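Q: What structure does this chain adopt?
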Amino acid sequence: MTGFTAALKKRRGDPLTRILILGTGDMARRHARAFRKMDGVTLAGAVEPVADRLAEFAAEFDIPDTFAELDQAIAWGNFDAASNVTPDAVHHPTTMTLVAAGKHVLCEKPLSTSYPLALEMTEAAEAAGIVNMVNLTYRSSPAAIKARELVAAGEIGNLRHFDAAYLQSWLVSRGWGDWHTEGRWLWRLSQGHGSQGVVGDIGVHLIDLATFVFGREIVRMQSRTANFHKAEGDRIGGYVLDANDTFTIGAELAGGAVGVIHATRWAPGHVNDLRLDLFGDRGGIRLRADGDESSLAICAGADVDPGTWRDVACPPVPSLYEAFAAAIRTGESTGPSFREAARVQRLLDLCLEAGETGSGLVEVR
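A:
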């Protein structure tokens, strides 16, 4: 048993790690389910301004203490860490409040809605000495960890080209529900409700995963975003449907490899599919993930001439939720940290800016 894995097990006499869940939506339920399964972790409280949602959530997860406002929970104080599962635009003020109170924070992605705000959160968390992580879940998939190891070991040689794609279909299907009538989807289409569109929603996963596996930063990029007509007057009720719903980035990595990063919600047949293809001068890697499962294949060595792909065994790894709990106990975080997420936010900002203005090649500093 590794030291990291051992840290996930509650030792006799260790105090419980008390988690506060901030928010009660679908993702909050995912966080709550993950923490409930762990030894040594307890769901101590929940925060939600809508009373009936709060009551339902607390009953579902047997949470003893509930609060309408975060300030009430801070005054109560009987928790060690918080899962911040609020809407994107609320991440900054709520996280800053938690950091000021000295609480460890696992924040949903994206860290914030702009790089300056993300950087402020990063610097505050680092100064406070708290565990700070962002829920970029694909980073902790077994295939991603193994792919990064293969690239670092030189199994495919010098990087030359890549294609990273995240494809969803919920604007043309009802696989996840009816977005025309459900607020949990409509807010993602509206800038006025804090959405950065597909760039901020799933582009953040794609950019983080790609640069994590590459082990290289993006140094130059061009981007294009698009928003397509979806309803009469481009609005439904109080939701103006103006957030981007598809994007492409042409990118160059440190070291010279070039490729494309793209995502869309207009991909029939793809409910929630992430793909990463990476090619070097000695072989290629093919990673696939759907949010729950991941797989990896490699074409290298003697397989290059016939073009044969072989599946790669990917040992299980701790989930990001488990990594957060372990970091609280050991003081050693495996990330992704606020600082890493802030770097991704810088790229998201550049993508949005260039995509909206039509500007050309951008140097990433």
